[in-house]
Structures are given as structure tokens and as C-alpha cells.
Amino acid sequence: MIEYYKAVTAMDKGKIKRIGVLTSGGDAPGMNAAVRSVVRSASSLGIECLGIRRGYNGLISGDIEKLGPESVSRIINRGGTVLYTARSEEFRTEQGRKKASEVCRLFGIDGLVAIGGDGTFRGLLEFSKYGIATVGVPATIDNDIACTDYTIGFDTAANTAIEAVDRLRDTMQSHERCSVVEVMGRNAGHLALYVGLASGATAVLVPEKPFDFERDVAERIRIARINGKTHFMIIVAEGAGSAMTIGDKIHEELGVDTRVTILGHIQRGGAPSARDRVTATSMGFHAVNILVKGSTNRVVCERAGKTSDIDIAEALSMKKGLDEDEYSVLEAVTGIGE
Ligand code: ATP
Q1: Which of 142, 144, 276, 309 is catalytic?
Q2: What is this structure's pTM?
């Protein structure tokens, strides 16, 4: 890695002069570590960095600040994003993107690193038509970006959810209740599956596997009960169905006292885990080096444990399914819970 870095430094230094960095879409723990890495990696190559606030909105309005190595001190450990984030309707329009390109010209931004989800990358792809080099860094707690095995924020969010489930289990055990916990993930079940595996859930419901209440919930609770369990944990991905409805049905059909908890935005906050800090740092470094090499329209990804990159259009054409191996493990080990 160091040799590669030296080679890039010697060969390509000077091509890109000023990089803009922004965070966009939903916030994810580790975004700050990625911003820090972009700024520090750029600075080490003599490239200036500008922080763009509030996602693409800031690129349109010129909400921009100079970032140096010192200005990103003490953020590696902080959740959220110091650059703020936003969803920009204006950037979806040709007119909005044209304004943004004029702002880039005014500030001398010749490369843009956008840290966010696939919507952010779609925006980047459209924006690259204005001649600004673009790189996307995947950050979303949902881990739903197909081109990469891992997205920044997933590990922290999973650990936050697992801690909450452990706490709920204590009270459910004491009162011999059933807990139905809804975790985030929109239309993807990666987070729910991971949390379910780590917490030893009685059942896990994910959007990728349409569920049958009798088979996938009621019967699992019965089997757990036959095996001596008196409390139960059902993990529901937000896109799989209504946790409230499932909770009501468990109570009505099985007579088990049930409590429903929707974890919600609590999963987005908190200090990033070591995994998220290290991945974000590595991906930020990689993003800068893509720009330095003169490449554009790339998304940084992690595959088989290695950081690499892929064309944005290709990345956006890919579909991410549930990890079937992980799901098979879940099927084999869940049932009686824990
Ligand atoms: P998360 O996964 O957390 O939702 P995201 O990056 O997918 O993150 P989006 O709201 O989908 O979040 O996208 C972020 C922003 O990217 C949008 O608010 C919009 O400004 C821009 N964007 C998304 N799709 C497009 C598009 N087709 N054209 C131009 N800009 C887009």
C-alpha cells in the first residue's frame, strides 16, 4: 500500500488541485472518519480540500468551507456528520446541477467526493456530465449497496441495535413476554438478519423473504415454548411488515403478552465502531487516490476484504440480494432462541 501511494504521489501529483467533499442522504456513523481521511489524504499530496455543507444543497448554494488537516481533528470518533447532510430536490433537476457546476468553477473544485448511499451516487453520475471528476464513498447503515460487501455505518448500527435487544431481553425474560423489535433497513433485510443472528432471535422477518405468520412466527414461538423458553424475541426489518400488527397477532393467536419496540433513529447515532472508523479511513484514502490518478465516475467498494473501486453506472446497475449463506445459518440455529 505504501509503495502504491509513493508511486501515485510521484506520478500524478498536480493533476487535481482542489477536492470538494460532502456527505449526503441519511447520516451514518463513520461519515466523519471518511471526511477526515479525504482531507488528510489530499493534504498529504498537496491537494486542497473544501468541505461542502448540507449535501448537494451546499454545492448549489455555495455553502462551503476550507478544510485543512487540523480542522478535521477529533472527529474520527464522532457519530453523525460535521458537514451536515441533506436530501436535495433541487439537485435532481438539470437547473440545480448546472448551478452546482458553476459553484464548482467559482471555487476551483475539480474533483468531488460524495459520501452517501446509492441516491447520492445517482446524483454524482448525473453531475459528472459537467466535467468534474467524481467519486462516491458508500455510507449507509442499511448495507444495501450492491457493488460493495460493506457500507460505512453498518457495524455501528448493528451493535447499537444488538445492545438494545439485549436490554429488552432482560425485561422480557423477567416478565415472560414476547418482544417484537423493528430495526431499520428500508427495503433491505441485511441489518435485521445480522442483528437476529447476533442476538439469537426466535424469528427474523426480512423483506427479501415473504413470511407466513403461522409458519415463520407462531410455529417458531411454539417450538421455543416446547423447548422450555418462556420469553421470545422477534426481529422485524422495517420493510418486512408492520411490527405493531405482528405483535397484536402474537398476542391474539398465542395469548403471549407482547411488547413492540421500534428502534428507529437511535440506530443512526453513536460513536463509530473500530470497523467503521478503519473502513471509512481506508475508503477516504482510496477515493482521493482515484481522483489523483485522473479517474472519474467511480464508487469505492470493499470486496473480499480489499478496498477497490468500480464504475458508478455499473455499480448502480447491480442488485444486492440477501446473503443466502447467512440466512441458511439463521434458519439452522434459530427456533428456540439464544
Ligand atoms: P440513504 O441510503 O441513506 O438514503 P442516499 O444517498 O441513497 O442515502 P437519497 O436521498 O436517495 O439518499 O439521495 C441523496 C441525494 O442524491 C438526493 O437528495 C438527491 O439530491 C441526489 N439524487 C438522488 N437521485 C438522483 C438523481 N437521479 N439525479 C440527481 N440527483 C439525485
Answers
A1: 142
A2: 0.94
